[in-house]
Amino acid sequence: MGRYQLPEIEMAVAGAAPVGGEALFELGMMYSSGNSVPVDLVSAHMWFNLATMKGYADAVRLRREIAAEMTDTEIGKAQLAAREWLKLHPEPQVKACVGAAPLSVAA
């Protein structure tokens, strides 16, 4: 499957910095349309799912459209792949010191 053959953009997303919803959405677009990679609806669903979690609104609609073309097994694989990706790429945790002003992490 395409998600195991990491194109350059996926390698960039796999870096240490937090990944924004737009980059994840673009990966979903790549896999759903076959732009620079073979069409892979499982991978597209995974990337749209991750973009949705980051608040990228357009990803919700496209994930739903792709899911309509997938089997339940394929959707399950996409959801599992998204969970695995999240385990490998956790958001950095920022701890505030007692008495200090709250800290925030920009996405």
Which secondary structure elements does this structure contain, and how are they paired or packed?
Blueprint: H1 8-13, H2 21-33, H3 41-53, H4 57-67, H5 72-88
Helix pairs in contact: 2-3, 3-4, 3-5
Put simply, the count of helices is 5
Percent strand equals under 5%
Termini separation? 29 Å
Which secondary-structure class do the elements indicate? Answer: mainly alpha
Major sheet, described briefly?
none
Q: Determine the fraction of residues in helical runs and give it as a percent range.
A: 55-70%
Could you walk me through the main structural features you see in this protein, from its secondary elements to its overall organization?
The protein is an all-alpha fold and 107 residues long. It is built from 5 helices and no strands. The longest helix is centred in the C-terminal third of the chain and has 17 residues, at 72-88. The two termini are 29 Å apart.
Which features would summarize this protein structure in a list?
107 residues, mainly alpha, disordered N terminus, globular
What is the gist of this entry?
This protein has helices spanning 8-13, 21-33, 41-53, 57-67, 72-88. The chain is an all-alpha fold and 107 residues long. The model is unreliable at 1-6 and 94-107 (pLDDT under 50).
